[in-house]
Amino acid sequence: MGQLMGGDPSLLRKINQAAVLRALRAAGRGCSLTDLARSTGLSRPTVEGVLDGLARADLVVETKAAETTAAGAAGVRRLGRPARRFRFRAEAGRLLGVEVGARRISAVLADLAGRRLGEASRGVPPDASAEERLERIEQAARALLGEGGQGAPAPRAVGVGTPGIVGQDGSVALCTALPGWTGLPLGERLRELFGAPVLVENDANAAVLGERWVGAAAGCDDVVMVLAGLSPGAGSLIGGRLHRGHGGAAGEIGALHLLGRQATPERLLATSGTPIDPLDERAVTRVLAAARAGDPRAEEAVARLVERLTHDVAALVLALDPELVVVGGWAAGLDQVVEPLHRELERYCLRAPRVVASALGGGAVATGAVRLALDHLEAELFTVAEVPD
Amino acid sequence: MGQLMGGDPSLLRKINQAAVLRALRAAGRGCSLTDLARSTGLSRPTVEGVLDGLARADLVVETKAAETTAAGAAGVRRLGRPARRFRFRAEAGRLLGVEVGARRISAVLADLAGRRLGEASRGVPPDASAEERLERIEQAARALLGEGGQGAPAPRAVGVGTPGIVGQDGSVALCTALPGWTGLPLGERLRELFGAPVLVENDANAAVLGERWVGAAAGCDDVVMVLAGLSPGAGSLIGGRLHRGHGGAAGEIGALHLLGRQATPERLLATSGTPIDPLDERAVTRVLAAARAGDPRAEEAVARLVERLTHDVAALVLALDPELVVVGGWAAGLDQVVEPLHRELERYCLRAPRVVASALGGGAVATGAVRLALDHLEAELFTVAEVPD
Prior knowledge:
Chain A has three domains: 8-92, Winged helix-like DNA-binding domain superfamily/Winged helix DNA-binding domain (Arc Repressor Mutant, subunit A); 94-207 and 365-381, Nucleotidyltransferase, domain 5; 218-359, ATPase, nucleotide binding domain (Nucleotidyltransferase, domain 5). In chain A, 41% of the residues lie in helices and 19% in strands. Chain A is built from 13 helices and 15 strands.
C-alpha cells in the first residue's frame, strides 16, 4: 500500500495536489491549465505536474476543446489554438460504503467523486454469527457491484462502519453488540473479499464524517454526533479531525447511564406497556407514533428516552465543548428531541452548543463509510512514493 | 506583540530553532557550533543563524573556551584555536506563574529555562471582591519580584491559572466560583500591572500542562487531569495539545453529578457529622484524616467522594479515551483514591486508562502557569517577524 513520504515538502505538495483536484472536480466539464493555475494560485508547472500524476493514474483525461467558453469569456487565448482542457474521470472507478448493523447491512456505491450511484441492503438476524454477517455484507455489495465476479472490476476502495472498538489494522478489538464480532479481522476479511483497500471505522465515527461531508454538520469542525440506540455511541470531530481516543474507544458511552440512574433503554421502552426490544426499529417507531398520537404511557416512555439522551449528550458536551451536537439513530426521528435537548443542555452546560437532528438519518453511517473510501482514494492520489508492504 | 508569520517554511524554521534551543539548554555549560550541529542534525549555517537571533535577544552568550572537553573527547579540533562555545542565558529574565484560587493566591518565579527560583502565596477570603483578589495577586508577585517597583525589571512573561471559562483575549468569560470574576479583563489588568505579556488559562488546563511538563503526565500526549474540588474541573491534552473546546468550556464538568444522582460535595461531606465547606481545605483534610483513623462516618464520606469522582472521571474517559488520568485537587491527597478509581473505571469503560495521583499536588496550577509563560517566551524567540498590534 502507498503511503505519504517525507516531511513538510511533501505536505506542501499534498496541499497543492488537493487544490488542483478540488478545482478539477468543481469545474466538472473541464478546465484549462490557465483556469486551474488561476483558481488554485499555483504555477503552471506545478499544475502540469499534478495533472501528469493524475493522468498516469487514469484519473484525468484531456477533453475535446469543442467549447472554450471560460477562456473566451475571460478574453484569454481568443486567437490561435484553443487551450488544452482537462477533466477528472469520476467514472474511472467505484467506491463502496458499508454499514454493519445489528439487523441490517447497508451498502452505498459511489463514483470517484463520491457521487451516489446506488444502494442496497440485506436483513440479518441480530444473533447471526460473524460468518453469516460477512455473507450478508458480500450479498449487499454484490447487488451493487454486479454479480459478474470475474467480469466486474473491484471497487477502488471500501469504507466500513461497524459497532465496537476498531483497531488500527481494521480488526474489531471489542464489540458487545454483535455475536462473534470481537477479535474479527474485519478489514483483512473484506480486503480478501473485495480485492481492494478496506477502511474500517467505528459506526458513530463514520456517521459524524458523513454528516460533516454532506449532512447536518457541513462546514463545522467541532462536532459531537450521538447515535442513539441500545448501546449509544458518539463520534467526535475536534478541529475537523476524528477524535478516536488513545485506544479507539472515545465516544463509547454505552455505560454512561449506569453511572447515574439505573435506567436502561429496555426498561424505558417497557414503560409504554409491553417490553420492547430497542434493537427492533419497528417497535421503537410504534412507541414514537403512539406518543405523537397522545398515548400518555408512550409519551412518558419518550420523555425518559430524551432524559437519558440528555444525560449522555450533556456528559459529552461538558467534556468536549463542541460547536454542534448532531442527534442520530432512532432519536433523529423524534420531532420532540432537538428542542428539549437544547433546553436541558442550557441548564447544565456553561456554554450550550447548537443541537440539530441528523440530516442523513439511517444513511449517515454508510455515507460516512463512502467518505472513508474517498479519503483513502485522495490520500492514494497524493502518494509521493509507493512503499511495498 | 509578535506572532508567527508565514506557512510551512516558517514552521520548519521554528522546528529548527526549537531544536537548537533545546540542545543549548540541555548542554547547560555551553556547546560549540559543531556540538549543536551534531546533536540537532542541522547545518552549521542554520545553527549559526539561530544563535545570531538568540544573541540579538540577549539570550545566548559566547562563553570562555576554558575547557573543550566535549570537542576534545570527540577528537575534533584538538589542534589550533579552541571552538567558540555558546550558552543559553537563563538568568537574562524571569517568568512568573500565578494560581488564582478561592482562598489562596500562589505564585512561582522561574528563570528563562523554567527553573524554579522561589514561591510565595497570600490568603484571600472566598468572598473577596475582584479588586481585593487582584491586590493579593500583586502582593504575592511583589514578594517574589522584589518591592523595588521602578528598580526591579518586569518578568518576561506571566502565566495565570484561574477557575472559569477563559476567553481568547485573557478575560474571564464565566466564573461561578469567584465573586465579580465573570467578565473581568484579567489578562489586560495583569498586563498593565506587570508590564509584560500575560497568558491566562483555565486552572485545570494549566494543571495538566504542569503535570505533563514536570509531573505525573511526563511524556504522555493523551491525558485527562481532574481537579477535584467544590466545582471540579478537568484539563485535557489530546495529541499533546490542550483541548479547550469550541468556546473554552471543555472539562467544565461541575454539573455532571446533577445529571445522575443528586449528591453535592457539601452533602457528601456533611455525612461525616457536621456540614463542611469543601472550599475549606483544612476541613476536608480533617475528614480524610478521620477516615484514615477509622471513623466510620468519615469513611462513608470519603467513599461517597470517591464515588462522585468516579462518576466525573468515567464520563470524561468514555468521551475522550485518554491514555492516562491524573487525579489532582484534594483527591490527590487520598491514598485510597487511585486504586478504587481504576477498578471502577475498568467496570464502566471498554478500555480503562492508567490512573495516577498528581505529582505536583497543590503546585500543579502554578507550575502549569510557569509553563504557559515559558511557552510564550519560546514562541517569541521563534518569532520570524514583529507585527505591531
